[in-house]
Every structure is written in structure tokens, then in C-alpha cells.
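Reagents: none. Just compute today. GtrA family protein.
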Amino acid sequence: MGLGGGRPHRPGRTVRCPEDVTIRAHDPVWSGAVSTLPRAATGSSVSFFLRELATFGFVGGIGTLISFLGANLLRTSFDAGPVLATLLSNVISTSVSYLANRHLTFRHRDSAGSGREVAVFFGLNGVGMAIQVCCTAFTHYTLGLEGALAYNLALLAGLGLGAGFRYWSYKKWVFTPPVPERAEPRTASDPGLLVVSGQSG
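Predicted 3D structure written out:
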């Protein structure tokens, strides 16, 4: 049924409504007008997710490169042990990754507070770092494999496991989506009512 009388509403036609006509959001004429919104929002969400994922992958690649090259540099140029080299390179990598993820990958998301966010980020990265250190320590001290190939394979395995944990934990506890505010109802009696004001035809 039309808004102003018994004639149905046709697209492209202006319908004059009596003053203070109340329209329910689930009425056919209203729901038909907004039925295309979810499809548009879905396409936009997928595109946005892909961009976020690509940025996260880029930042992760930079962090991995810093960790990998830094550990080898510390081992060969500064004669650091395998565990110390992994720890120091990961501290540098974590600092760079936090800044890049905060200001690039997840800049659109809210946080409970910068101090809490940094503490949780570094705490979770500590778990990821422990995963990597366990891989290198197990290979070097338990298996007794001290060659460069064994060390780098253990480092890669630790980086992969640590990266998987970091991605999951970032999305769950650090860079969480903003909590939407509750919309105020248009009327005190029925939040699903929308009031349209117009002139009588």
C-alpha cells in the first residue's frame, strides 16, 4: 500500500505523506528501499578486508626480514649465541611491527588505551618470541645441530609458528574493532518506528 493512500508506490514517483506519518522499518515499501544496502556493504567489507590483509602481510614481511637478517648479522658479525641473536633481532622486529601495524594496518581501529595496547602487544609478541626461541634452542642444544643450514631452518620454523600466533592474537586482543554506539530510538515507545514529516496531498 502506498504511503499517502491506497495507491501503490512506484519508483521515481514522489509520494506526498500526511504530517507525522509513521513507517515501520519492516514495512514492504521501506524494506525494499534498503534491501540493496547489505549487498553494497558486503562488497565494501570484502575489499577492505583484502586491503587490510595485504598491508598486514607487507608489515609481517618487513618484520620477518628484520628478524632473519638481524639474527644472522648478530651471529656472524658480533659472535652472539643463537638464543641471544634471536631475542635481540625479535625485539627490534617487534618494535617496528607495532609501529607499522598501529599506524598502517589497523589505523582504523580503536584501542582501550595506548599504554594497555603496547603492553598487550609486547606481551603477546613475547609468547611469539618464546615459540621462535624454543625452535632454535631445541635445534641447537637438544639435537646438537650447529650448522648454518640447521639454524636457519629452525629460525624459519619459529618465525612461521610465531607469525601465526601473532596474527590470531592481534585480531583477538590488541587491534579490536571499535564498539558501535547504541542508537537512540526515534520514539520512546517503539525504537523500530521512523517518523516522516510532510505535507498533505
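The radius of gyration is 28 Å.
Action item: order primers for follow-up constructs.
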